[in-house]
Amino acid sequence: MKFDALLFDFDGVLIDSESLGNRHIAEWLTAAGHPTTAAESMANFMGLAGPQFIDAIERWIDRPLPEDFYAARKAEDDRVMAAGIDAIEGAVAFVRSLPADLPKAIVSSSPVSWIARHLDHIGLRDAFGDHLYSGREHVTNGKPAPDLYLFGARQLGVDIARTAILEDSPVGATGAVASGGYVIGLSAGSHCAPDHGERLKAIGVDASADDFDDVTRLLGHV
Q: Which of 74, 109, 117, 166 has the smallest C-beta neighbourhood within 10 Å, fewest atoms?
């Protein structure tokens, strides 16, 4: 391992949640009179959270979101929290293969409660200890700002320049690249179209990976 630490995005990197979430958003918007495909939802909203997420949707529909949108999202989140979301293929084995003393953290736009619940579901809660960091809860400016990655590295006590970051979304990759870390664009989730890796390369990621076997090779030989 030629890095001092690893920072993991969560949705779309460790759990296969992006297709599910964006399908729900697209279905709600379409039913509300704003025809939206899941692909359009992913292209416009994926990786965002909090005010940035709401602003992006309101720009898309050109009006304020009604209160029933928030109620629908909460109901869906509650349903998914109860059911759990499965891991990206190879993610659990990859994390378990890392040296136990290698500093690692989650840096996600999702709330810590979401991260912890789904880490429990996939059996990785112990792997990250207390290093679960949310762009909604730990920094003022979430993704695509670089702040969350810099915060995560500081919490681990490592130099961001000696840190590898796994990201899947264009929004996340933008912030990760700006942070100065070594960014691997991962296209392993069910939400990733054939050109997903090329989109991440255009943003400036240092390397791209189609699966966790690729990630292993990159981390061992960079």
A: 74
